[in-house]
Amino acid sequence: MKSFLQAIAKLSLTAKLSLASSLLLVVAIGITIYSAQTKHEVRSHADQNSEDTNNGEQGTNDAMDAADAAAAAAAAADAANSSASNGGGEENIPGGGYCAGSCQVNAPPAPISGMTVTCNPNTSCYIDWGPSDGATHYQGRFDDQKNAWNGNCDNPNPGDGCWDNGQTYFDGRQFTPGDTYDLWIHACNQRGCSAPLDVSFITPNITPGGAAPPPVSGLAVTCNPNISCHIAWNPSDGATHYQERFDDKVNPWSGDCNNLNPGDGCWDTNSESFVTQLTPGHDYNVSLHACNKYGCSGPSWIGVKVPLPTPTPTP
Fold this sequence. Notes:
The chain starts with a helix and ends in a 10-residue tail after the last strand. Among the domains are: 113-202, Immunoglobulin-like, CATH 2.60.40.10; 217-305, Immunoglobulins (Immunoglobulin-like, Sandwich), CATH 2.60.40.10. It contains 2 helices and 16 strands. It has 315 residues and is an alpha+beta fold. Strands 3, 4, 6, 7 and 8 form a 5-stranded antiparallel sheet that branches.
């Protein structure tokens, strides 16, 4: 180092200035390189931090999206479960009930009303009732009071019985003359059954020397476009008169001839007859009972459609 300084001391002033300039240039270049490297490192750290931040934000966003998707899936599952428990997203019906197509049944139907029991001495009883809104079928139970009701429709006690069908009537021939029965009927759908409507009745004893006539055969109804229908049948042995019932299927059968729904009718006749109080284009159920002083038979049934009037030709 000493010899280096002695050599510099021997240089001329111009040489010394030139050397100093060269040294300053080298120092400047070194500072520039160092500064550029430092900036690069700082930028790299910044970029890394930014990328980490972005990755964190992306991860947060992904997590939020996943949470949202899970919530949506849970909501969809709840909706599906709710739909399944409500009968497939059906339409609510007040007081329970059912409807065609897509509809909702959320409760058992209301109890039936208007039950009547008509028995005759030939051990048969005809039971009918008004329909219940929302009912798809009816469960009937009868208990001969001579025996306790055991609650088992598959193996009832003697004299007892059950039925389950979609009709609003039951034509029973299992009853013992002179016995007292308890009878109850439930209206049911896929949500369960209503409370029962119950009644007690006594079947009449067989009158010596007489019995109700058997049901008629050959029941036929012929209608024409002027809204009259001709009703004919083969006479029933022992019958003295006949009970006709017309049920317009637009309205349910009330089961009460003293309180008929619109379009329905009841008539007593001694022979074949004409009926004119019918609505063109409507479908009817027609029933006929053969009767005498001992009682009436079970019904004979037939369905008929009243034709529309013939259009008047244009002159």
